[in-house]
Design goal:
This protein is an all-alpha fold. The protein contains four helices and no strands.
Length: about 110
């Protein structure tokens, strides 16, 4: 069973990385555009309020970050500490939930 779980986690981390790569580029391009355009925070929020597109883009970004980061954190915890199995998985799951909650609060604030 553990071998199957590791295989699924490996695949999920690679898939989340494939989703993250273009989303990071979109995020960086958007931030550069906003900064170079001299937009203030209130002007940025005025442009993003009520935008379903931005809510979907950043919602997918948050889910991908949470999955990718949690799997990576689980691996690091398993390699750097004596925790194995449920201990490392519990830390990763809590991290994933925290990123999802905080991330969706941020997405809700900008859309």
């Amino acid at each position: 069973m553990s071998g199957r779980l590791e295989l699924w986690l490996f695949a999920l981390q690679r898939i989340s990385a494939m989703i993250l790569a273009p989303l990071v580029l979109v995020h960086l391009a958007t931030m550069i555009y906003a900064v170079q355009g001299g937009l203030t925070a209130s002007e940025i929020l005025a442009r993003t309020q009520g935008s379903t597109i931005w809510a979907l883009v950043y919602g997918l970004f948050i889910v991908s970050v949470a999955v990718h980061g949690a799997i990576g954190l689980r691996t690091v915890v398993r390699e750097m500490t004596p925790w194995r199995g449920t201990g490392a998985s519990a830390v990763a799951a809590l991290f994933c939930v925290a990123v999802l909650v905080l991330g969706f609060r941020a997405v809700g604030a900008i859309t």
